[in-house]
Amino acid sequence: MAISTDDFVPAYPGKDVDDVVILGGGLAGLFCALKLSPRPVTIISNAPIGQGASSAWAQGGIAAAISEKDSVEKHRDDTLAAGCGICEENIVYQMTREGSERVRDLLSYGVPFDQDLEGRLQLSREAAHSHSRVVRVRGDMAGKAIMDALITAVRRTPSIRVLEGYIGESFIGEGRYVTGVLARRRGGLERMAFPAKAVVLASGGIGHLYAMTTNPGEANGHGLAMAARAGAVISDAEFVQFHPTALDVGSDPAPLATEALRGEGAILVNKAGERFMEGIHADLELAPRDIVARAIHREILEGRGAYLDCRDAIGARFNDDFPTVFAAAQSAGLDPVKDLLPVAPAEHYHMGGVLTDANGRTSLDNLWAAGEVASTGAHGANRLASNSLLEAVVFAARIAEDIQGLMPTPRSAFWDEMDAAPGLPSQRNIEERDAITVLRNTLSENVGVLRSREGLRKALADIQKAESVCVRQSIQNMMVTGKLIAAAALMREESRGGHFRTDFPDENPAMAKRSYATLKEVNALVAENLETVI
């Protein structure tokens, strides 16, 4: 990471460096910025805040042990069970213990969670939860409502500067010490340095590295690759969650049919009307997501198709209770009140990411990470439904507290005006576009719901070849993250949670532990793989 701020024009010459730069305008980034207030913070976002964030698309809600019938311990145990033996138990307990407090924070920011006539939060149950504990907004609009409230709060906070339309490409620093972010204006060639006393990586997930995903286009693994290239330790990269019920209607990204539909009693059937989850798992449609995803994948592969039947369980209530899914179905020419909804597994969430501790610190000095790009150990091999938004706010708050403790005296909130001129356009490269298509296809085919040694080795070879034609750093970052995932999947010779190997279909008790790797180690594995493939 031998990049210095001297090599680039500073973003605001003549002034002190930022106290904190946050890369990412999703839930984790915005919540962390608000918690750091009144400390000056600069948020760098690829898209207008909220528009490129998976958080805004989250339909289920936030899981928290709020009900008198529920407890932190029960939520912890459900999370550990879903994580298939490799969750960090202390991390899980801390996350579930702090859930109710973070929900209160969100209420204070104006999030309109569903409440009954007496003002009590209404709770729903989702897959693999033993109790109803998911706080929602109008059934399937929690993510959008949360983000709308936080965006309003951020816009009203003078200590927060938001820079939209900038793509993070590299970290600035020497050795293990990160001193800022190098970003490029979207659609342009100019790169800009943003020096900082603390950098928070909250850049989101990896969905658009796959051909079918429920994530927005900005979820492309850039932040994970930036950290890996700087030398950060990456953990559990092989564990990718595929949402079982994306609407299979040819859209990119694929519309999500929320888990809450099955929580309300919707069932899965094939073309013959057979309820195929019977005999697969005692919890039927509410089995853990990896099990449901593989069952649906199998029905599709064997030509029987897979459909979500909401007609009896939800019927005429659909538009009122699940307006987002209803609109998506209608736009595809389907009426969920009367029609079966075709579904297929789609990349939805990455359990792995940049290794962090309980305070969000990474293995690099001065760099914290939160949200989907981080690997806290809270999710293990398979994320429990609606724990993602919970993890984002819990660890964003912890990072803010950690930074405040390390830097008790903030600088004044002053920034020079940024040049709003569009600058030179970036060069559109047909070869790079083709390389992205290769990446998305090979990850879906070979590093998807089902994996094998042969397929994973092919994926690594495909990605390495595609990377060789990439010029722009942002595209190279996508390739790097693809390699990290495929290599980690190749090294884990067992099946566990979201990672299923057809050549190693059983769990190996000796591998009931988290995985760790650096980009240097992964590149060595890729080189070795290419020698044997050739």
TrEMBL record:
GO molecular function: L-aspartate oxidase activity
Named cofactor requirement(s): FAD
Domain annotation Fumarate reductase/succinate dehydrogenase flavoprotein-like C-terminal: ranges: 475-509
Cellular component, GO annotation: cytoplasm
Domain FAD-dependent oxidoreductase 2 FAD-binding as annotated: residue spans: 19-389
Catalytic residues (UniProt): 289 (proton acceptor)
EC number: 1.4.3.16
Main location: cytoplasm
Catalytically driven reaction(s): L-aspartate + O2 = iminosuccinate + H2O2
Known pathway: Cofactor biosynthesis; NAD(+) biosynthesis; iminoaspartate from L-aspartate (oxidase route): step 1/1
Keyword Oxidoreductase: yes
InterPro entries from the UniProt entry: FAD-dep_OxRdtase_2_FAD-bd (IPR003953), FAD/NAD-bd_sf (IPR036188), Fum_R/Succ_DH_flav-like_C_sf (IPR037099), Fum_Rdtase/Succ_DH_flav-like_C (IPR015939), NadB (IPR005288), Succ_DH/fumarate_Rdtase_cat_sf (IPR027477)
UniProt keyword terms in alphabetical order: FAD, Flavoprotein, Oxidoreductase, Pyridine nucleotide biosynthesis
Superkingdom of this protein's organism: Bacteria
Subcellular location(s) per record: Cytoplasm
Family designation: Belongs to the FAD-dependent oxidoreductase 2 family. NadB subfamily.
Described function: Catalyzes the oxidation of L-aspartate to iminoaspartate.
Protein name: L-aspartate oxidase
